[in-house]
Amino acid sequence: MAVFITGASSGLGEALARFYAAQGHKLGLVARRADRLQALMTSLPGTHYTYVLDVCEREALHCAARDFISHVGHVDVVIASAGISAGTLTEQTDDFGVFQSIFQTNVMATVSTFEPFIPGMVERGAGTLVGIASVAGVRGLPGAGAYSASKSAVTTYCESLRLELKPRGVGVVTIAPGYIRTEMTAKNPYKMPFLMDANDFAVRAARTIAQQHSYRVIPWQMGIVAKLMRMLPNWLYDRLAVNAPRKPRKSE
After folding, report:
1. Looking at residues 143-151, what average pLDDT do you find?
2. Where are the domains of the chain?
3. For residues 190 and 210, what is the distance between their CA atoms, to the nearest angstrom?
4. Which of 25, 141, 160, 211 would be 1's cystine partner, CB 3.0–4.6 Å?
């Protein structure tokens, strides 16, 4: 099986790369940091292909996809794992660029990641596209307008894409992580319930992808929390969440 993963040099992407490599699959790995990507490459068993680029550079990402396809013939799973997070406040006009960066990386790069693989998957009537959303996208969180909105957008986008491609044999899976132990969450200055190791997440995510679940929260405990959050009326959610702890802004 051939698997293409963005954001592979750290966090969820790295954990997924290690899992799939251990299973004997061929990987196409994308990340910005050449040193981290090379270190990962040399530590993995098997033959893989690395691409040092920024996922916001659409043409570079498409070139990497075409190169990987030329090596492996066809790609079975594409995981758009690249993502960034930072606290944002609309009242702080300096945060506008942070809003743009988060949306470009979390949403538009997901679209760019999927684009070059869809024609081949449709032609074969097989393949799976995987979007990484977040529990933070279930309801808006104070101080996280950009991140919450971007991850909500990923969920809705993948749902639309699933409906478009399902009749043609292509699967779309949305995975919404809760708190996973990564470099990104290490910066959170608050308690993180049900914190899960990234390698454990990768095992569960791969199972979700193999079973073609349309949407799944990992870990399952956060899935219950997510369902409760969706059910709360606005007045009650506002009362409970208005003083929720906030992720630091990029300038803090």
Report:
1. 96
2. 2-241
3. 34
4. 25
